[in-house]
Amino acid sequence: MTAATLSDVLPAAAQDGYAIAGLVVLGWEDALAYVQAGVETGLPIILQAGPGCRKHTPVPVLGKMFRHLADQADVPVVCHIDHGYSIDECVEGIEHGFTSVMFDGSKLPISQNIDTTAAIVEKAHDAGVSVEGEVGFVGYAQGASSAATDPGEAERFDREAGADALAVSIGNTHLQTDKSAVIDFSRLREIEAATSIPLVLHGASGIPGELRREIASTSRVAKFNVGTELRMAFGQALRRSVNADKAVFDRVALLSPTVDAVKTEAVRVIREIGRP
Ligand SMILES: [Zn+2]
Question: pTM of the full predicted structure?
Answer without folding.
Answer: 0.97
